[in-house]
């Protein structure tokens, strides 16, 4: 798939897929969206000593970076194990041009950004002390065959239902649910009524939250 880099309204960059007419992130602001959906309404609501995060999908790696940025603000008395699925990894040139480390004041972020993208696929790599990343190159529907610890937090960040409707239907959500711990949290930018109903059918407590800039609502769902 042919991709090009575009700048979003908050100054952060995203990738645009010409064939699908689809951005990887909101054009209102890639960084703002990631921080609002996956940090404010995700990581900051989980209090486990060891947090196992499942991301669908890795994309540009921005969600990993904002998660590390938030982790560095804490006392770091907990451990994060971050598992990220991706079928179409971005290339070295795209990593260089996105330059997400420039969005953060911490001078260590250039090295952290490079370490995230240079990390071998299929291997758990310690990016910083207490933060382990495992990137898995696969189709999301291979999730059922992947060995994972019980997941406390899901970043459900698939492409929109307009271009990939099958990713927002019951079979994939059922696979995700099977990997989650009781009281685990799933957070997503979507607020589709069909998604809310599917999650409720799968015994999730679903809550509509204020969306990121440019979007009225989003979903949090706790597995009961």
UniProtKB/TrEMBL annotation:
Gene3D superfamilies, per database record: Vaccinia Virus protein VP39
Database matches in InterPro entries: MnmC-like_methylTransf, SAM-dependent_MTases_sf, tRNA_MNMC2
Start and end residues of each MnmC-like methyltransferase domain: 142-223
Protein name: Peptidase
